[in-house]
Write a structure and sequence with these properties.
The protein has 255 residues and is mainly β. The protein has 4 helices and 20 strands.
């Protein structure tokens, strides 16, 4: 698997490939055929950005039976779809802003799919793998009380900073049985596996392609396992997906 990062660079945001302790800078966007340069930066010195600038983030609700049960909600008979705006995206270590007036704000650790080519009206899930560029970690931060009050999810999941993604995109990853975990201040809160998904990644890409055109760089957040819980100002939340890495963000009060 190739690990691709997007970093803050004096020349502007740049893509780079991880090579041991270094990042090899790329020219262009990976899913558009970026080429490697001879320039390197030390990984530990590189400020990481969100590894995509999608036209949309598509969320999938209740895609793990145990999570549906903990919410007291039925298991969907087909994927439950919602959107998070691009303005909600932040990268690793950027603060999640906790609005003081919204009540409970939860973490939701998820595997993210990154689309690699324009995708529309796939005939079957078997065609989906050619449309997937790679995978990342997503934290589908949710204002839980607003979600219950509004019924639909847009406001509860759409606040600025409510979609941390990262730390990188990993290509050629077998996602059939990966650990998906969340920790808050080092305490394990969520511990599931992608094999527990009701609708796996290929099915989700096929299903969504029959609703909307998926653009290169778009992200599908595939749902969260059981164990969602509250975040408070001062917390640090980590989302870990096996084979990808750890996405960590502090939580700050936004008054």
């Amino acid at each position: 698997p190739v690990r691709l990062y997007r970093i803050d660079h004096p020349d502007g945001p740049r893509w780079a490939r991880r090579d041991a302790d270094d990042l090899v800078l790329l020219e262009g966007v990976p899913w558009e055929g970026a080429t490697e340069t001879d320039r390197r930066v030390a990984f530990e010195d590189a400020p990481l950005l969100a590894p995509a600038s999608p036209t949309k983030v598509i969320g999938i609700g209740r895609n793990y039976r145990a999570h549906a049960a903990e919410l007291g909600a039925p298991v969907p008979q087909e994927p439950l779809v919602f959107l998070k705006p691009p303005s909600s995206i932040i990268g690793p270590k950027a603060p999640i802003r906790h609005p003081s007036w919204v009540g409970r704000v939860d973490h939701e650790a998820e595997l993210g799919i990154v689309i690699g080519v324009e995708t529309w009206q796939l005939a079957s899930p078997a065609e989906a793998s050619r449309c997937i560029f790679g995978f990342c970690c997503v934290n589908d931060v949710t204002a839980r009380e607003l979600q219950k009050r509004d019924v639909q999810f847009t406001r509860a999941k759409g606040f600025d900073t409510f979609c941390p993604i990262g730390p990188c995109i990993v290509t050629d990853l077998d996602t059939r049985d990966l650990a998906v975990r969340a920790r808050v201040n080092g305490e394990l809160r969520q511990d599931g596996r992608t094999s527990q998904m009701i609708f796996p990644p290929d099915h989700l890409v096929w299903f969504l392609s029959r609703v909307m055109t998926l653009q290169p760089g778009d992200i599908i957040s595939t749902g969260t396992p059981a164990g969602v819980g509250p975040l408070e100002p001062g917390d640090t939340v980590e989302v870990e997906v096996e084979g990808i890495g750890v996405l960590d963000n502090p939580v700050r009060e936004d008054s």
